[in-house]
Amino acid sequence: MSKKLIVVGDRVLIAPEEGAERTKVGLYLPPTAVDNQQVQGGRIMATGPGLPMPDPGDPTDEPWRTGPRETRFLPMQARVGDYALFFRRAAVEITFETERYLVVPQTAILALVRDSGTDLDVEL
User: Fold this and answer.
1) Fewer beta carbons below 10 Å: N end or C end of the chain?
2) Bridging pattern class, strands 39-47 and 51-53
3) pTM as predicted
């Protein structure tokens, strides 16, 4: 039976790249950042749905209210396949089916590198 790892909320699942001065995508990390493990990079393997948002059409939150409520999410900037540079101290390390990953909140991500052909915010 195969298992599926589901990322929740505004978190991303990252396959970490181990401390190199220059990342595989060409970002240069200063030795002080690598030595102190302040920042780290890795490839995003999965993302959560984003931050849940309250229903704007429901001005009162009535817990006794019956009926289905549709959950809406503020979409994430991070996408599967992006390379993320993030604060290492915010990451939680997990092992899933013998693979090591880091779960990182989107707020800890400093920058994303996305392959060309998609919408980059800044062309370098």
Assistant:
1) N
2) unpaired
3) 0.71
- 39 found inside a domain: yes
CB atoms within 10 A of CB 61: 8
Which is nearest to 92 in space by CA: 102, 80, 105, 107? 102
CATH of the domain at 18: 2.30.33.40
- DSSP letter assigned to residue 22: B
Q: Is residue 100 part of a domain?
A: yes
Query: How would you write the pLDDT of the chain (124 residues) with one tens digit per residue?
Result: 788 899 998 999 999 987 555 556 566 666 665 556 688 889 999 999 998 887 666 556 666 666 666 778 888 899 999 999 999 899 999 999 999 999 999 999 999 999 876 454 544 4
Q: How many domains does the chain have?
A: 1
Cβ-Cβ contacts under 8 Å for 91 (sequence gap 6 or more): 14, 16, 40, 102, 103, 104, 108
Q: What Å distances lie between residue 51 and 48, 64, 117, CA to CA?
A: 9, 24, 27
